[in-house]
Amino acid sequence: MSNVRLTLERRQRISTLRSTTTYTLGLLIGLACGLLVLLAAGAPASTLLNDLVIQVFFSAMGLAQTLTLAVPLILVGLSATAAMRLRFWNVGIEGQLWLGAIGATLVAINDVGSDSLRLPTMLIMSAIAGAAWIAVPLILKLKAGVNELVVTLLLSNVAYLLLQHLLFGAWKDPVNSFPVSPRYGDNEQLASLGFGNLHSGIYIALGITLLMAILVQKSRTGFYIDVIGHNRPTALATGIPVTATITLMILLSGALAGLAGGLIVTGVEHRLTQTIGINTTFSGIVIAFIARFNPLAVLPTAIVLAGIYNAGGTLKVFYGIPDAIVVLIQGIVLLTLLMIQFFRSYRVSLLRPSIKQPT
Amino acid sequence: MSQGSALLTLSAIDKSFDVHRVLDSVSFELANGEVHALLGENGAGKSTLMNILIGVYSADAGTLKLEGKLLKIAKPSDSARHGIGMVHQHFRLVNRLTLTENLLLAADGHPSLKSRSTARDTLLATAREIGFTLDPDCPVGELSVAEKQRAEICKVLALGARILILDEPTAVLTDSEASSMLGAIRRMAESGRSIILITHKLREVVGFSHRVTIMRRGETVAAGLDTGDLSIEKISSLMMGASTSSVSSDKPPGSVRPHGPDLLAISHLHAQRDDGAPALTDVSLRVRAGEILGLAGVGGNGQHELVETLCGIRSASAGSVMVDGADALGLSPRQRRKQGLRVIPADRMAAALVSELDIASNLALTSVVSGRFGWLWLNRRRMERDANASIEQHEIAGARPQGRMGLLSGGNAQKVLLAREIDSGMKLLLAHSPTRGLDIRAAAAVHQRLREAAAGGAACLLVSEDVEEIMALSDRICVISAGRITGELPGDANAADIGRLILGHE
Amino acid sequence: MEQFITSWLGSTPAFAIPLALASMGLVLCERAGVLNMGAEGYMALGAMTAAVLTLTLGNPAIGIICAVLAGAALALLFGFAVVIMRCEQILAGLATMAVGLGIAGVVGRPYVHKSFAGLQPLDLPVLDRIPLIGRLVFNQDILVYLTVLIGVALWLLLERTRAGLKIRAVGEDPASADVAGVQVQVQQLVAITASGALCGLAGAYLSVASSSIWVENMVAGRGWIALALVVFARWDPLKALAGAFLFGAIEALLPRLQAIGVPAPTYLMNMLPYLFTIAVLLVAAWSGSKKGMAPAALGKPYVRQDRH
Asked: Which of these, B98, B97, B105, lies nearest to B76 by C-alpha position?
């Protein structure tokens, strides 16, 4: 057996069955590992179903909280989807989100526009601010060929420093000593739906998901995205408007992340704070990846992840399991899904080089 | 066999890539101190065979023997240990390292090449022995192509290679550089080394090799013939697989079909390769309406760059391209399509089709851009209706509009591409190796479509390395070599004449 | 003034060392062609491990060694994913980052905010009495000296040894390296594991040497800065070391300026390193110089049987 060895070949044709099976298997294995980690961290098995499913999805208050948490997650999931469909690495979703929140607050603090239009102005401004923040890496990539990965990452840090600069400086709420902005007026807050903390931002998130799905799946631009994302040389050779499509979708990616920030501050916080948006880059990418970059699938994925975040809160209060467990579970699921792709994309064969060897 | 015992024997080697069979029971034998020419068209399997010999690929079946002993080569370092070295057409040198560093890299575990200074000295000594000059301390990326090649040869010899495989060593060299390289090859053989010389150029085969092995479509068609017994005609017909009588009879004589105005006029076109070296030099061609112009030549002589320049993906450094009387060079690929340019590229899955998308989308790719299925929203139903019609009309077996493109066979994928490109707006069809990798039936179907396209009034430029294909289809034949058009022949020229021009043997 | 400079420069290593260690690890990893986005996670894991073990065992040395091992182990998981399983490097890096942050948060939970006796500065007698530079250069903890040593060693390794030659070759052109007999996968796994070890050490420095406490969000984006620093340093370990001290000096300057009453816009000035790095990227892209470019095969999985 000594001359038997393993060789690796890229599969040239991958059947739909193989793709589906490996994906499902990966997701199941990942979730199972996540559960094991939860148990190992001290969550009691007896109440796990209750804590993880019943409480967060089938109790009124739990569901309300889950959906509230889901609003920004849906948007960052869509933001990551828009960028990753074009193989653009937007790892600065957090930065765009913060810029969005800053943009909305800027409108609120300066009382821009009429009172009745204040809220829409804030939300539009948040989207514009997010798009403007991603425009920098976009332009650098298109004009100078600078890698977007590092630039989006760096600008994320810059955005956070800008946020702190404002909260510890000009925008500091004079009535208390915390680094938060003054509270928004009533006309600067999204309507509460009377269902926990849930606010009308959920409609915006749902509407945008639908629009994204139509854009990606039904529109001509969506067709272009598919071609550019899968095979850029073909897109160039067949005359598809590559630069225009990339510009549109990447600005959209930034705008969605910015809007997520806008919805958090107008819907939940009602002021600009330092604590919004932590880990949203990673969550957005995880959601987009699990949803296979399909906008409609982003919706349930984001809601399930929101449920896990929500349950994480419960676990923290009752069993002292820290929030970090949610990040850990996301990491495990993503890693499993990535690793299982090996069995989708490659063929491993046992090889005996001298099969025809005459005896 | 005139030689005594063989130094190296490869027998019954099989190799497939995924489902694609590239070597079918191939055998090869090398004697001590000989220059053995290995001939074959691109894709005949020479490089794959040599890559198996040096352990880059593994054979699916077959045996290797060195001096009568069974040889197991699992990885490149195994072959190096047995004194087998290869100089690839794409040099295996790490560009940002110096030549000395490249040698040290490859010399791990080598008894005498332990330090930087011994490595450097060995390189210089080797270079002196075969009459090269080289700078061992310059990053390889800054050397010219000819210098890189000499560097690579010295590196392989410094590692102690007794068997040296040279993959088209003169393809990238100027004439004078080529002559001195061939002289060096002769000297290396005289000093007791054995050389496997992969080449296309008959002048080199006849002038510099002792024996010849010829491969064609993954099989050995002539094994170890003495070069002295072979005529150029014999070699070229074995290599091309075309005896002069096999010109297809269904082609109308060139003068009968009426030709229209020039739809493509290329004059004095210059373009560069990616590395900045000239790829096209003063290329002038014209193709008239209703005519197929065959551009024959060995791959890598500027065809790829010509096709890219015509498509608008590569910019020309000088010259002009007129499509139907209007300048095309300043236009984007999209605008050139509007002018009536249609393209069948050599690698259809890389530059024309999207394997991850469905067949309907691939068929619709260009008409989506022109707005046929709506400007804002796509009319999927209409797209699939069109796709169904195309599939039926062009008899694309096993295709459904919703089926994934990547699951189609090569022949059917090419039918999809032809169905898309040959449309009512086509004035000029650019087809690059349109039947590469296809079986005979599929290739015949592609040929039929090209003939119909020309008969319908389009100008068709067929760029191909397959001389049979060129002869079967072309109304006129031009030959490209080293980026220049080296001759024009009538469509009924015989294979030997074409072969002589292609192989650079005037 | 002298006191200001002494205090400023004296506190610079506390900011610079974690960045230096992590970015030098990432330089090594990227020179082997692997883009490693996991540094933040390895650092968190290292910081937590070192703190927890120092707290429970009372010995910072054991804590630091285990932090190095923990970082290496997590990086090895990443290495398995990208080198053996050929996963997409960016996503796999982010995933292991999350795993590291997660483990650090969960396991370290009971030990949060408990201070302990950390690593003490070395008191080099006599030498630290040299005016001005004495206390600066000779009154640091051992990890500071070790970091400088690692930087020089790494540079020697990469530029002067055969082992470094192999790593560079793999990062530039794995196919050629493979033909030359280099075991591409082994080289990459070694480089990845070493980068994890250095990131683990960087984390340990944060908890055991510079703050003597473990809090959950302790790394606070330093892993990302280290990643940017690699680009800033054009993949050179010595420049990474120097860059880390430059970034660290800026960070250390701000609280001191405030302390003496200079109204410096702290947060805006903290943006400078990031903006510098973007400027460096832009200049490099425009000048198109071949020297100091990213390793040519960075981020690309290598499969020998692919037809190149």
From this structure: B105
Please tell me if residue A135 touches chain C, with a CB cutoff of 8 Å: no
Q: For residue B7, give both structure tokens.
A: 């130094």
Statement: residue A186 has pLDDT above 50: yes
Residues 6+ away with beta carbon under 8 Å from A59: none
> Mind listing the pLDDT tens digit for each residue in B183-209?
889 888 988 899 999 887 777 788 889
Q: Which CATH superfamily is domain B246-502 in?
A: P-loop containing nucleotide triphosphate hydrolases (3.40.50.300)
pLDDT at A2 (0 to 100): 42
Contact A148, A140 (CB under 8 A): yes
pLDDT over 70 at C176, yes or no: yes
How large is the ipTM?
A: 0.91
Q: Are A252 and A90 within 8 A, CB to CB? A: no
Sort out which chain C residues have CB atoms less than 8 A from A346's CB and list them: 86, 303
Residue written as token pair 């100089």: B87
Residue that has been written with the tokens 């931002």 in this structure: A201
Res. A1: pLDDT tops 50: no
- In this prediction the pTM is 0.88
- Phi/psi of residue B90, nearest 5 degrees: -95, 110
Mutate to test the interface with A, among B336, B367, B378 (most CBs of A within 10 A): B378
CB A76 within 8 A of CB A280: yes
Domain residue ranges in chain B: 8-244, 246-502
Q: Neighbours of C (≥3 Cβ pairs closer than 8 A)?
A: A, B
Write out chain B residues lying below 8 Å of A223, CB-based.
361, 368, 378
Q: Which of the following CATH numbers is that of domain B8-244: 2.30.170.40, 1.10.10.10, 1.10.760.10, 3.40.50.300?
A: 3.40.50.300
Domain range A55-318, CATH class: mainly alpha
Domains of chain C: 2-119+133-287 (1.10.3470)
Q: Which region, left, alpha or beta, applies to residue C244 given φ > 0 means left and ψ of -120 to 50 means alpha?
A: alpha
Highest mean pLDDT (candidates B111-120, B242-251, C131-140):
B111-120
pLDDT digits (tens, 9 = 90+) for C222-242: 999 999 899 889 999 999 999
For testing the chain C interface, which of A140, A335, A348 should be mutated: the one with the most C CBs within 10 Å? A335
For residue B367, count CB atoms less than 10 angstroms from its CB and return exposed for 0-12, middle for 13-18, buried for 19 or more. middle
B246-502 and B8-244 share a CATH fold: yes
* Residue C193: both structure tokens together: 């594991």
pLDDT digits (tens, 9 = 90+) for A125-174: 999 999 999 999 999 999 988 889 999 999 999 999 999 999 998 899 88
- The pLDDT value recorded for residue B245 is 38
Burial of B90 (0-12, 13-18, 19+ CB in 10 A): exposed
Measured CA to CA, the distance from residue B10 to residue B470 in angstroms comes to: 33
Q: Which chain C residues touch B58 with a CB distance below 8 Å?
A: 305
Note the pLDDT tens digit of each residue in C60-112.
999 999 999 999 999 999 999 999 999 999 999 999 999 999 999 999 989 98
The token pair that represents B406 in the structure block: 């990547």
Map out the domains of chain A as residue ranges: 1-42+321-359, 55-318
